[in-house]
Amino acid sequence: MLVEEKDALKERLKEIFGYSQFRGNQERIIRNLLDGRNTFVIMPTGAGKSLCYQLPAMINDGLAIVISPLIALMKNQVDQMNAYGVNARFLNSTLSKGEITRLKKECMNGNVKLLYVAPESLNKEETIEFLKKVNVSFVAIDEAHCISEWGHDFRPEYRRIKSMIHNLGEMPVIALTATATPKVQIDIQKNLQMEEADVFMSSFNRKNLYYEVRPKKETKKQLIKFLKDNKGKSGIIYCLSRKKVEEIAQLLNVNGFKAAPYHAGLDPDVRMKNQDDFLNEEVDIICATIAFGMGIDKPDVRFVVHYDVPKSLEGYYQETGRSGRDGLEGHCLMFYSHNDLSKLEKFNKDKPVQERENARILLQEMEYYAESPVCRRRQLLHYFGEEFKEENCGMCDNCVHPRERFDGTDYVQLVLRSVKQTNERFGLNHLVHVIRGVEDEYVKSYGHFDLEVYGKGGDEDADFWKSVIRQTLIFQYLEKDIDNIGALKITQKGEEFLKNPYAIELARDHDFTTEIEEEEESAEKAPVSAKSYDVKLFELLKNLRKKIAKEKNLPPYVIFQDPSLEEMATTYPTTKEEMAQVNGVGMGKVNKFGKEFLEVIEKYVEDNDIETASEVVVKSSVNKSKTKISIIQQIDRKIDLEEIAESTRLTFEDLLTEIENICYSGTKLNLNYYIDQVLDAHKQDDIHDYFMSAETDSLEHALNDDSIADYSEEEIRLMRIKFMSEYAN
Ligand code: ADP
Ligand code: ZN
Question: May I ask which residue range the UniProt record assigns to the signal sequence (predicted)?
Fold first, then answer.
């Protein structure tokens, strides 16, 4: 019997929609609804939510009502259903009186199977009166997250749905959404009074999407570079304002890309045309405000760029979700800056207090996400209440270019102890104050300065502790208290860790604050996608480097390091000046080795019609910090390194690091006066010989090499600087 039923359902699927299989939870959901049970569906965009109410509507007697907030999409969906031969209609404010009268008649005759209704139409007395006379089979609430004011797309009229449909008598309700944090889920169920509903949650993991966040710096140049690497592919670029949309669309057209703008300020005809052009691949790229994309089902969108920071992670997830729907490549790139956050915050200024506060919390989550060193996928899934079990997803910038780790065991312990001692009733900021010993009003009024943990973490700054707490949350030692907003509680895992601590590795957040001042450093730190340079040119340059290295009898890394070649394969320098701007390359190096590289790049650029660095914004010259300049000057005056360390207030080790940075960014330094004092000639030769034959200049390799096992790290580093200065600069 059961088997037969199963087949019957599949037969209807095939008969009506032409599909031979259900996807994911579809079948279970549909059966649940057909059994007359309230059903709550959480399924990522593109997974096939609509079918979950469309098919039952066809099977049940009577009329199914679909409440949907997107009037613009109703027509599309109805057209689609009609094309399947299903009698579907919509009821919203775009219909004339006559049309409404006809529609009602048809519904009453029992011919219509699916009726899409806008929530504001449902709020009308006459609509309810009419629906009371119709045999309604069930109610579907699409985009159900609009019910919750904790979500990103709150619509007040959605909160009245329950009381409206209550008038229609007993019938099952199916609520569907593609985004709902655990808090929003609870809110939706409470509001619809369907706490007992069966919840069907599909995994939100979109395995084929690559997530990346880059500093919003020289953004146009970065964008053009990115688009060049993705030439001919279909993609969406989201901007915050209409003006920006226009500007970027124009920029792209000028640069030879086929792009069109899309935003609510455009003439409807133009807007429709641009959308169609994108769908029909007349244009490759659509630059759009977030008005674009709802209900767009283009399976082969290969990238989604957020030129500006989105307002919430929910929105971000939805928008990025429009890439790679066919399961193939989907690159999600976000440009991030604090400045954008402040702008967004300003937009909220005129909102009612509660709304403003909610918007602020959403923005803060966005900030945490962008700056966090933790796997992007893990963070996104955690946000939607799902645990990502793998160590490294291999498909996000933080996994592909992991940040340096440190032992976080003691830090996590201190955080958990603080949560415990404050009775699990406080949020992140207060905990940071307690840990750092900041005696503010709250600390005083709760007497928290008496706690054992108070001030124990005073050596680290507030950002550090915030980051530790967030990582503790994402790795589920702590969790948010759903009933008490903002408060953090210890999980089972956290309790176990407190009882039997084990080693935990943490990483530091990305630092997006120094992006302007510290040109060189932020360039190093910027998470660079594995494919962000011209792979073909890079290979050519690498081959050339190999050839020159052989000729000159030097290890290749001495000539140019890989990151420098990658940068050349990104900015295409064709003059000496431009080449000297590349990180790790100074004029000295350009004069020494640059000529042939410039020739190769020039030819490549010509052969491939590429715009060069000089045509896109040229990087500003490297801004050497005061300390660096002081170090260089003192070395010129042959001052002992110990003394330089003292005058610049650096430890000796940090001084060496600074000197290495100087040397690796192409400045020639002569440390012989110092090295000759601390290492005799024969020792110098040993280390020199090692570097001459080594494959890489890696310190770690050098430290582990038997041939120089007797030398200290300091000696090896000094000699490496000497070596690089002599041969490479
Ligand atoms: P959502 O509303 O969840 O974003 P849709 O309902 O628009 O997703 O469905 C996305 C796409 O998947 C549509 O093109 C739809 O026709 C298709 N689809 C849905 N269910 C199936 C299925 N069982 N087999 C094949 N394709 C399906
Ligand atoms: Zn990852």
Answer: none
